[in-house]
Every structure is written in structure tokens, then in C-alpha cells.
Amino acid sequence: MEENLYTRIEDYLDNVMNEKDRISFEAEVRQDPATAKALEQVREARDRLRRGWENDAADRTLHDTLQQLGAEHFKQAAPGKKGGGGGRLFHLPRVWWAIAAGVAGLVAAWLLLRPAGSEDLYARYRNFDEASFTLMGNDSAQQSRQIAAEAFNNKDYATASKALQAYLQTHPNELELQLYSGFCFLELGQYNKAISAFQKIRATPNNAWAEEATWYLALTYLRQNNRDQCAKTLRSIPKGSSRYEVGQQLLKAL
Q1: Which domain holds residue 157?
Q2: Whether 107 and 123 share a structural domain
Q3: Rounded to whole angstroms, what are the CA distances from 137 to 9, 142, 160, 175?
């Protein structure tokens, strides 16, 4: 688009043309399809950018930057105007549109590539196995196991936690259910209880649940945003462990 036409479109959309120029420009729009198309394209671009800037904090920052650039670099009046550019939103030559596009690209890249937050990392790495507790009778304790498994698998962690606690009062040494109790505490944001449950399992010699307890202890610290303790716990996972490789991945992500 030739710059004089672009400037006249800007003037027209900003309602700063004098009456004679406005009438002339509108006649040109009616007679020349290329001018009419250019007008609609610029109008649409302005509307889209304004809507985007109003709704996105990062874009509002870009908007402020462009406004400042316009104020600093384009103070001369456009042809037919009195005074300066008036801080107009889009009165920028092509080279500055290219710069603006580059800045917008950097903003988008930062939003996509910025380091993940603790909660994002937790959601990415948390992957509970389905609860499947073997029933060993029909008494109330065994019913608590069944209720806990069904509630946990339905992500009703409050109900699962209540049932697990009822069961563990009479069966405190069942480490698998202690582990799932820790999962519930973790999901419910009861981090101290989760840490206590996982540490108790880790401290129990020769058990099959120690690796999972260590892994989820690290994730508990992560969700607390205690990255130092999270990293320390991850480093304690030995090579050969089923959680070693994923632990190294999380360390790098930290």
C-alpha cells in the first residue's frame, strides 16, 4: 500500500480530515475498489488489535510500547493537519509495523516458552495409578476400602480420604492405602499430612511403595513451590528406579 494512501486512510478513520479532503476521499473509495478494499482492511486490523489489546494484558503492554514509539518518533504532523500526531494508535511507517510485528512475536514466544510454574509442572507430572484395593471380607473396614477406591477413581478425594482414614485407624500398617491417603492429602492441599504419609512409607524398610512415596513427596514440595526440597528429594531417587528418568526430567524443568 502506498504511504500517501495509508496516511489518508489513517486520517479518515481518525476523523481528522478537513471537509474537502473527506468528501474527496469518500468519492475515491466509491470509485476505486482497491482503495475501498484497503480502507476495510485497515479498519478491520485496527478493530482486531484494539479488541485484542483490551482483553490481553501482554498485548496491552505492547499497545503502550507502540503508543510511546509513535509519540517519540512521529511527532511531525501528517499532511493537511495542524499540530503533531496526537498519539495516534496506528500512524506508523512500514518499517515500524515490521518492528511491531517482531515485538508481538517475541511477546507470543515468551508466553509460550516461559518456564512453567510449580502448579503447571505438578499437573504435568502427577499421574496416579487407579486404586484397586483387594477386598478381604464384608465388615465395615473392608467396605471403607471399597468406598475409598471408588471415590479416588472418581477424583472425589475428600470422600476417599475420609474412608481411608477410617480404615487406617484399624489397619495402620497397610502401606498401599497409606500411599493413597497421601495422594488424597496432596490433592486436597493438605501438604503437611501428605509429607508425613510419604515420609512414613519411605522410612519403612523393604517395602514396594517407597519409590512412589519418594516421587510424590517431591511433587508435594513442588506443589508447595518449595523447589529446593523438591530438587533434593528428586536427587535421592537412585539410578535404576522406575522414577529415575522422569525425576531427571523434572529436575531439568525446575
Answers
A1: 119-253
A2: no
A3: 82, 6, 19, 19
